[in-house]
TrEMBL record:
Species the sequence originates in: Amphiprion ocellaris
Region of interest called Disordered, as start-end residue ranges on this chain: 1-31
Transmembrane segments: 340-361
InterPro entries reported for this sequence: PLXDC
Record keywords, A-Z: Membrane, Signal, Transmembrane, Transmembrane helix
Localization annotation: Membrane
Cellular component terms (Gene Ontology): membrane
Stretches with biased composition (Low complexity): 12-22
Membrane topology reported for the UniProt record: Single-pass type I membrane protein
Gene name in the database record: PLXDC1
Family: Belongs to the plexin family.
Identification of the protein by name: Plexin domain containing 1
Length: 379
């Protein structure tokens, strides 16, 4: 379930102030967005998602819209806290593992401001660097009785709909209705029904308007000379930005996930798969990664980036035989021959590996790969 238990049919008090207070008391989580100048846009490299947009004339736009009134899609829940609050967010559990940038989520945080926070740690900067945002803007569902935030989960897809929500301070421009759908396959769709005005004029420095996806990781930086304590630094390693001028009535966007290093569960696949590139296997963690994901801190802590990368046939087999040798020494004496054979084989492989390392170093001078990121001090 949810951390708030604030889920019930829409019921609103007459006062916006009391609605917000009730949301806080119910366990709501305040989320505030920061100005654009606090972040740097990371170029969409096309490494994690491909995406397409559709307009009113496309049949796909109609196909992607999930009719929340159709009971065949599953039970719809109107969230009482979100539907009656301003600048609030609530964690909601998913009934399935949802793959996002290669790692799996079992809970998300739905915000009144038209986006989903996908991180585990609630930090004011992470909320603007780990998100799924069909339309991140300064919405205030508490303004109107007609405004609701509702969702459904049928085990195959989780759909959130912001229905008839209005912009704080600009309520007269009209109500917005849009939704985001998270599919078990990792596909993400944004669908828009009511967009009463052009989105390029509704943003401000305090409340930027965004649409798209973003992910980041937090790492501990070396101690600074001024404080003597480590700094936490947030790196936004990838962002997909949708041109908000293309978001109109009856439009949609569909994101299709691409294979990532994290999907490989063995050393062999990590190095040999033609679906991914730049992957490294960390034997201590038994994980395949390019080092740029939410497990970055662990990757650094265990010196995974320092492991020498060798040719698949030698690198992976070297460790396999080493493990066999170690296991054999703990077995009964009847398996002693296996241990001896494994030990000899490991020694030969190690010798070959050392030769390969020497050749590799001579033929491939180390070159630091560029890292497109943002750095934000969170002291």
């Amino acid at each position: 379930g949810e951390s708030t238990g604030g889920e019930h049919p829409a019921h609103r008090s007459s006062s916006g102030h009391s609605r917000t207070s009730r949301a806080v008391q119910g366990g709501g989580l305040t989320i505030s967005t920061l100005p654009d100048n606090m972040t740097r846009v990371v170029e969409d490299s096309g490494k994690y998602y491909t995406w397409r947009s559709f307009g009113p004339e496309d049949q796909r736009t109609q196909d992607l819209w999930v009719d929340m009134s159709d009971v065949r899609h599953g039970q719809v829940r109107v969230h009482g806290i979100l539907s009656n609050s301003y600048k609030q967010a609530v964690r909601v559990a998913l009934s399935f593992d949802f793959p996002f940038y290669g790692h799996y989520l079992r809970q998300i945080t739905i915000a009144t401001g038209g986006f989903i926070f996908t991180g585990d740690i609630t930090h004011r900067m992470l909320t603007v660097t780990q998100y799924i945002a069909p339309l991140m803007a300064n919405f205030d569902p508490s303004f109107s009785k007609e405004s609701t935030v509702q969702y459904l989960d049928n085990g195959e897809v989780f759909v959130i709909q912001w229905e008839q929500v209005r912009l704080s301070g600009r309520e007269s421009v009209g109500a917005f209705t849009f939704q985001a759908a998270l599919y078990k396959t990792g596909t993400i769709t944004f669908s828009y029904r009511d967009i009463p005005m052009s989105l390029d004029v509704i943003g401000s420095a305090e409340h930027p308007v965004k649409a798209g996806l973003s992910d980041a990781f937090m790492v501990m930086s070396p101690s600074s000379q001024s404080t003597g304590s480590p700094r936490q630094t947030i790196y936004e390693y990838h962002r997909v930005e949708i041109d908000t001028t293309k978001i109109t009535n009856y439009s949609a966007v569909e994101f299709t996930p691409l294979p990532t290093c994290l999907m490989h569960d063995s050393c062999e696949l990590c190095h040999s798969s033609n679906q991914t590139s730049g992957c490294s296997w960390c034997h201590v963690l038994q994980r395949c990664s390019d080092g740029m994901d939410r497990h970055r801190q662990e990757w650094l802590d265990y010196n995974c980036s320092e492991e020498v990368q060798l040719d698949i046939e030698n690198y992976c087999l070297f460790y396999i035989f080493t493990y066999v040798k170690t296991d054999s020494s703990n077995k009964s004496e009847g398996l002693a021959n296996t241990g001896v054979i494994a030990g000899i084989t490991a020694a030969l492989v190690l010798l070959l590996a050392l030769v390969l390392v020497a050749l590799y170093i001579n033929c491939h001078p180390a070159a630091a790969s560029p890292l497109y990121l943002i750095q934000v001090s969170t002291e």
